[in-house]
Amino acid sequence: MFVGEYQHSLDEKGRVILPARFRDQLAAGAFVTTELDGCLSVWAPEDFEMRAQEVRERARTSAAGRQVARAFFAGTVDGTPDKQGRVVIPQSLRSFAAIEREVTITGQFDHIEIWDATRWREEKARGDRGLAAGGDA
What we know:
By secondary structure, this protein is of the alpha+beta class. It has a single domain, classed as Transcriptional regulator MraZ domain (Chemotaxis protein chec), CATH 3.40.1550.20. Helices cover about 40% and strands about 25% of the residues. It has a 6-stranded antiparallel beta sheet with strand order 1-7-8-4-3-5. The chain has a two-stranded antiparallel ribbon with strand order 2-6. A hairpin with a 4-residue loop joins strand 7 and strand 8 (about 110-115). It is globular. It starts with a strand and ends in a 5-residue tail after the last helix.
């Protein structure tokens, strides 16, 4: 299970270090993908398989679903952390998520999200307002 919020920076090679508490769960492999709302996601293989099935099912029902599936699968890369816990974020994925240097890594129960730090603060503020107003949590 992935939970929590962590601040990190990309290094000069476009790598980000994942929080130590997440690394064991990704030791068998991981995938970095584009995600809804303009962030990136890191998935363990078994959870990526479930997410991939969802995307494939939508692709079977509409042209828009096929376009999303093409972008999703074409943009997916190996995200297995190296021995120092770093994951390479290719330029194409950094561009998608508007990531320059500072990132926020959040646990989302079955996956990790990587956000540009400024965009995350905005997204979190919207979520906090929703929670304060009694929205679904």
